[in-house]
Amino acid sequence: MGSDSTFAAQKRASGGLPTTVATANGVRGRAASVIPRGRQIHKTFNNIKITILCGFVTILVLRGTIGLGNLVSSESDAENQQLIEETNRILAEIRSDKDPTDPDDQTGEFLNPNVTYTLGPRITTWDEDRKVWLQKNPEFPNYVNGKPRILLVTGSPPNPCDNAIGDHYLLKATKNKIDYCRIHGIETVYNMAHLDMELAGYWAKLPLIRRLMLSHPEVEWIWWMDSDALFTDMVFEIPVSKYNEYNMVIHGYPDLLFDQNSWIALNTGSFLFRNCQWSLDLLDAWAPMGPKGPIREEAGKILTANLKGRPAFEADDQSALIYLLISQKDQWMNKVFVENSYYLHGYWAGLVDRYEEMIEKYHPGLGDERWPFVTHFVGCKPCGSYGDYPVERCLKSMERAFNFADNQVLNLYGFRHRGLVSPNIKRIRNETVTPLVNVEQFDIRHSVHPSSGSRS
Amino acid sequence: MGSDSTFAAQKRASGGLPTTVATANGVRGRAASVIPRGRQIHKTFNNIKITILCGFVTILVLRGTIGLGNLVSSESDAENQQLIEETNRILAEIRSDKDPTDPDDQTGEFLNPNVTYTLGPRITTWDEDRKVWLQKNPEFPNYVNGKPRILLVTGSPPNPCDNAIGDHYLLKATKNKIDYCRIHGIETVYNMAHLDMELAGYWAKLPLIRRLMLSHPEVEWIWWMDSDALFTDMVFEIPVSKYNEYNMVIHGYPDLLFDQNSWIALNTGSFLFRNCQWSLDLLDAWAPMGPKGPIREEAGKILTANLKGRPAFEADDQSALIYLLISQKDQWMNKVFVENSYYLHGYWAGLVDRYEEMIEKYHPGLGDERWPFVTHFVGCKPCGSYGDYPVERCLKSMERAFNFADNQVLNLYGFRHRGLVSPNIKRIRNETVTPLVNVEQFDIRHSVHPSSGSRS
C-alpha cells in the first residue's frame, strides 16, 4: 500500500506537470503578446527542460517501482539470481513429480477416522521367528564380541531445507554421527524417504523403526536419533547390560511422567528399542494418534487436555507416547527404562555455554551433565524457517557443540579447533616418525573396549 | 560499471538542476525590472514547483539506487531477508575467527619456493612398524573374515556451500556412501578440516590420507572418494584379491597415460592406497607441486606444457600424479594398477541418461558400463557457484543417480522411487507377517558374501 500511494503521488506529480506546463504556457501565452521574441525562446527552452525533467522523473519512478535498476546490478548478482532461479525451477519440477496412473500416489486425502490405522499386518511370533532365523544364519549374529548389535537410525526430509543453512548443519550432524558410530562399531541408517505418507513429519520414525526391525533381524537394538541431536561425548558408551531386562530406553524423569503428567517428561529425540515382539506391539499401540488430518488434530486436543504444559497443536509422537505410557502404565512400564543418569538426550540450552568449563574441569566418558553424551537442539529447527529460538543463538550453539565433539575425534590425529566457534583447526601434537605411540595413547577404541577394534 | 555511469548521469542531472534554476532565476532576474509584480509571483511559484520537482527527483534517485523501495516489500520477503542476513552475519563471525597470538594462524603467506615442501618427517620403517603393531594388537586386525579392512575417506570444506543447493547434495551423497559402506562393512571418515593450509583444495586429500594411514594401522586400504561421486552399484565389491601385488588402484587408461600423456588419463576422484611404506613414499613424491601460491602456479605451467589437453591453471593433484607416474614410470608403475574393467570412477555424462535402459536390461553387481559402480559428477561443482555444465542438467542428473542407487537400498525394505527424478517412494512389496523371507531374498549382504554379515 505504501508503494501504491507513493507511486500514485508520483503519478499525480508527473501527471500534474503537463498541467503546470500548460498553465505556465497559458500564463506565458497570455503574456506572449507582450513578451519579445527573445523571451519566447527562453520560455520554450524552459518548457523543454521541464519536459526532459518529467521524462527523468518517469524513468526514475519506473526504476524504483519495477526494479529496472536491476538491469544495471553487478554481474555477479545477476548470475546468482539466475542460479537460484534455475535451482528452484528444477527442484520444483522434481518435487511436483507425480504418477497419475498410480492409485497410491494420492496426496491430500486423509484417513477415515472410523478406521483404526495400523503400521502393517499384525505380527505375533516375532521373537520365535527371529530366534530361529538367527540360529540358521550364524554369519549374522546379534551379538558381536559380547556386545549387542546396534543400528543407529536418523534422517531428514528428501527435499532441501527451507533455510539454506539447514542442509549444512544436517551435513555436519551426519558427520558427527558417522564419527561416533565408526569409533563404537555401530551401524547407521540415514533415512530420506517417507515410508508412510499418513505418518509424515515427526511420526515418520514409527513406520521406519518397524520396517528396519523386520528387515534387520541381526540387529538387537534400534537407536533412533533426531537429526538435530549431536554426540558430544565421543568416549561414552551406552551401558547396554543395564537394560538386559528392558525393551525400551528413553531419557526422561519418572516424577514428571507419573506425578505431573508433563508433556516433556520423556524425549523421543534419542531412544532405543529392542528388536522384539514387545516393541512391535508398542509401536502398534503408539501409532493410532499419528495419521495426519482430523485424526491427528483431534488426538492433539486430547493430549493438550491431559498433559501438563502442552500447547494446543496436532498430536506429536512424544506426547502420544507419554500419554500411552501413563494411561497403560501397567501394560508397558515394566519394560521401559526411563534413563536420566546420563544425557541420552541433553537439552542444549543448559549445556552449550558450559563447554569451556567442562574442558577445564572434566574429561570425555562421563556422559552426564559434566560431559554430556548427546546435545539435542530441540526447537532450533535449522532446516525450517521458524525455530523457537533466535537464529544466531542456535547456529552459534550448534557450531560450538559440533566443534566440542570434533575436538575429541581430531585428538587422535593431533589437531583441535582453534576455538569452539572456529571451523579452522590447529596442530596440538607435532608430526613424528613414530606415530604408533600416539595411536595407542589417543585412539578412543583402545581405551574404551580392548576388543572393540574389529567388531568381531 | 553500468550502474556507475547511470548513477553519474543521474547525479549530473540532479546536480544540474540548481544550475538551471539559477540560470532561470538569473534570466528572470534580468527581466524582473521590466515584469510586473503579478508576473514576479508567478515566476516565484514556478521556481517553487521546480524546486519541489527537484526534491522528487532526488528521492526517486535514492529509491532506485539504494533500494529504499525495499522498505515496502512483502512481510515474508522482509523476514526471509532478515533470516539470511542473520545467518550470514553469524557465519561471517565464525569464519573470521582468528587467534592473533597463534603464530600458526597465518593466512596469506606462501611457502618459500626454495624450500621443498614435505607432508611430515620422513618415515622409512612403516612396513615393519605396522607389522609389529598388528601382531601386538590382535583385537585390531587388518583382515576380517578374509577381507582386508578398508577405510573410505571423503569430505568437504568446513564452510557452507556458495550455492545453497550444494549442501543438500553433499548430504545426499553422504547418505549414499553411508548406505554402501554399511552394506559392505567398510568404515567411513568424513573430513571437514584443513589439516594443512598449504595443501588446501583438491590437494587436501594428500595430508589427510597420510594422517589416516599413520593413525589407523589396522586399515589395509585407504579409499579416497570425492564428495561429488556417488555409488550407483550397491552390490558390486572391489575385487581386492586382484590387487595383492599392488599398492595403488586408480581408474584410467594406460594408453592415454603413456602414449598420449593426457591430463585425464587417470582420475583421482576415487582411488585406493595400500597402507604401507610405498604409499607414504608416493605421497611424498606427489606433494611438492601442491603448496598454494607461486609453487602451485609454476607447477601448473609445467603440467600444462607436458600434459596433452591440459588447460592453463594452477597445478591440480590429478595432473601432478599423472606427470609423476609418467616421468618416474620405472620407480612407481609396477605397483600401480590402472583399472578400467569396472567404473571405480564413472564419468557421469555418458551414464546418467542410460539408467532406465540399464534397469531394463541388466542388474546390480556388474560395476561396469552396464551398471556403473561409481557415477562421478566431475565438473558439476554443486557446492560452488561456477560449474562447467548447466545447473539444471547437473542437478537433475545427480538426482537420478542418487535415486538409481537408493532404489537398490530400498529394495530390501520393499520400496522404490516413483521415478528417477522423484524424492517420493512407492511400495513394491506388500507388508507381510513373514518378513524374514524377504530378508533372505533381498538383503544384498546375503547374496554378496555369506560371511559379510558380522564383519568378524
What is the mean predicted local confidence, pLDDT of chain A?
A: 84
User: Could you state the order of secondary-structure elements of chain A as H and E?
Assistant: HHHHEEEHEHEEEHEHHHHEHEHEEHH
* Total strands of chain A: 12
Based on secondary structure, the structural category of chain A is: alpha/beta
- The share of residues in helices of chain A is 40-55%
What's the shape of chain A? globular
Q: What separation lies between the terminal Cα atoms of chain A? A: 70 Å
- Largest interface summary: A-B, 135 and 131 residues
The low-confidence parts of chain A are 1-33, 66-75, 97-107, 450-456
Which radius of gyration of chain A do the C-alpha atoms yield?
Answer: 32 Å
Largest beta-sheet details of chain A: 6 strands, mixed
Helical segment tally of chain A?
15
State the strand order across the main sheet of chain A.
4-3-5-8-7-9
Oligomer state of the chains in this structure: homodimer
Hey, roughly how much beta strand do the residues of chain A contain? 5-15%
GO molecular function (chains A, B): xyloglucan 6-xylosyltransferase activity
Membrane topology (chains A, B): Single-pass type II membrane protein
Organism (chains A, B): Forsythia ovata
Keywords (chains A, B): Glycoprotein, Glycosyltransferase, Golgi apparatus, Membrane, Signal-anchor, Transferase, Transmembrane, Transmembrane helix
Quick summary:
The structure is a homodimer of 456-residue chains. Chain A has 456 residues and is of the alpha/beta class.
Question: How do the helices and strands line up, and which of them pair or pack?
Answer:
Two copies of one chain form a homodimer.
Chain A: H1 2-32, H2 37-66, H3 75-95, H4 126-136, E1 143-144, E2 147-148, E3 150-155, H5 164-184, E4 187-191, H6 205-215, E5 221-225, E6 229-231, E7 248-252, H7 254-259, E8 266-274, H8 277-286, H9 294-306, H10 317-327, H11 329-332, E9 336-339, H12 355-361, E10 374-376, H13 391-410, E11 415-417, E12 425-427, H14 436-442, H15 444-448
Parallel strand pairs in A: 3-4, 3-5, 7-9
Antiparallel strand pairs in A: 1-2, 5-8, 6-10, 7-8, 11-12
Helix pairs in contact in A: 1-2, 5-13
Region (Disordered) (chains A, B): 1-21
InterPro entries (chains A, B): Glyco_trans_34, Nucleotide-diphossugar_trans
Keywords (chains A, B): Glycoprotein, Glycosyltransferase, Golgi apparatus, Membrane, Signal-anchor, Transferase, Transmembrane, Transmembrane helix
